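Q: I'm writing up a methods section and want to include an example of the input and output format. Could you take the sequence below and give the corresponding predicted structure tokens, formatted cleanly so I can copy it straight into the document?
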Amino acid sequence: MSTNESLTQSNEIPSEQAITIQPSSIASYAGSGDWMSAEGKDSSQEGVGGLALLHAVRRHWLVILSTGLACAAVIGTSLWLVLKPQYKATAVLQLAPSAPIILSKTADQQQTTNEFEIFRDTQQSLIKSRFVIMAALRDPKLKNRACILREDANRNTVAWLTDEIRVDFPAKNAGIMQVSAMEPDREDAAVIVNAVVDAYMNEVVNYDRQQRRDRLSDLQQISAEKENEVRTKREQLKRELENIGAGDDQTMVARSTLAVSMYAAFQQQFQGMRSEHRVLLGRLQEAKRTLAELATAEIPETEVVVLLNSNPIYRDLQSRLTFLEGLSRLHMEAAAPGTKQPVGFARSKAELESAKAQLLTLEQKSTEQVRGAKRIELEREVHRLESRVDISTGQVAAFEKEVERKGNEADSVGRSSVAAQMARAEVDNIERILHGVAEERERLRVELKSAPRVAVLGDRNAPAAIPENEMRDLRSAFIALGSLFAMFVPALGMVVWDLRKDRINTSSDVSKRLKIPVIGAVPMIPAMAMRRLGDATRRSQIWKMRFTEAVDGVAARLLRKAECDQTRVVLITSALSGEGKTTLATQLAMSLARAQRKIVLVDFDLRQPTLDGAMGLPLGPGICEALRGEGDILDMVRQTEIEGLSAVTAGSWNRQVLAALSNGTVGTLLEQLRVNFDFVILDSSPMLPIVDTRLVCQHVDAAVLSVFRDISQSSKVQAAQELLDAFGVRSVEAVVTGGEEHSNAKKLAFQAAMFDEQNEAELVETGKASQDNL
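A: Here is the clean output for your methods example:
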């Protein structure tokens, strides 16, 4: 049987284990386009054009549709509720340009230019103030209205009514203020406006007049209290002046100034005495300290020399010493080398030593004489300073009493003067207050007789009119346009987001746009079919055959390359994780084993191994132990359940494995496997995030990039291919998962499934006939 025949036989159904090994990120999409177009359409120019948009919509059509419908429903309902007909009720109030005044205005009472504008703005703010709104909500006519009950259940009614009421002025400088509200119900609008205007009149306008009446009463009470207070303060001023002995304010100030000046002079003199006393104390302490330290203090040499020079005995000894030193030098010079000491040398030397001892004794006695003279002098100084300190202490104590007496006198006069001045100031202040109170009291009496500054015009109980709304006829059009807009905005956002990912849409994206040869396409099995691959149904059989034929086609390409250029060590990798590399490596190894080849599948995904779990093999010892030199690689090869297929698991990874990968050990291991097997399939880690694959790929014959449609990104795949080229891989090709395989594979799979189904039906009929015969 030829190689191609063994790979494409329609009646060879792969085992269930061979089909169900899939990456965790396989999406539930079925391929929708042939990976090699018969018309030769170049999709490398697709970019972000029409087909890219269609693929983006295809990937997210369910989310786009559900999100768009939900947004359209929300926006349409909101517009339906917002664009309801509204009824407007309006109350008109007149504001007087100025406060009514019965008396004629003085120059100080003339109205400023912007006083009326300030008044209007104030009233506009007051009518929407919180206390007016709360008073309106207490109105029995408004409390139980449907609009209040509706808003009370949703949010704070005070905030709602504040937003509902509009206050404006039809003309810029006119004194007309309009209070209006818009509601779907005519009566609700009228009741809201009437309640707010009534609350404003009661809480602001009428309350202001009542405040003025209360203010007038308070002013009368304040006036009586201040009159009593000013009488009391005048009596206090009179008593303070009598205490000082002054008849008027000028005499009081003069006496106070004189007392303070005398106290300041005494205080200054007292501070000088205290300063001098502190100086004396310091000098006394210094003299005592010097006297105490004299016994151990060093005497200056100059003072000792002066005393010695005045002693004739010292001078004679000095002369004799000089003479003896000269005589000793003469004896030394007269002596011949090697002879004994001259006669008289010993005697002159003894006299010299005696003279030196006498000089030393005389110097010590002179030092003690100087020390004694200094002690006598310091004792006299201490005695003198103690006498002066005693005198100064008595003077300071006596003068301190005098300063204290002068201070008490100045303080007494000052307190009386200050009290008198404060009493005078309080009297003047109270008199000014009384004058202002009298003026304000008379003004309030006149203003209470005038008309209010704010008045309501017209009939506020008139029915509300429908507001002019030119857009109400276009309500349906607005709702439709808003719903369509809400439906397409999420779709546009999702499509733009997807296009920015630059995902692989078809096999042509890899072969023509990225310039990577595609040697095959593997179908992406839907999740529903994946769960039923073990069933003996027609659909499951078709999926099994399609998958097997696609993998066998890739295996045939590898067999051909092996015959042509001895490509036997093949690396299976991907740009990132989750792109189907482990599934591809496992299925290719199984397909080559079915082609009567001796295959070894090596798990080089050392940090996240999965081959041991898929094949039901122990994790170690494996390739990591072989790289560390802990055993022979051939001893770690384990036979799988599939005939002709062996596997080497990953083992236990550590940092030593990375060092072994970088020093070339992996090349030796792969060479051993090449000698003992027809094909060595390496399931490696992703190319971009992990460095292991870059170190391994230098020792392989070819590399196959596993590309996953709708998941792999063009930029990442191209970066992986450039890395493989940079590390010297001779041949870099790709297999697309999710791209449609050849139409022949589909036909063969369908025919095989139909054949098996017919055979099964014939067997069933034969069994029934046998039972009938029995």
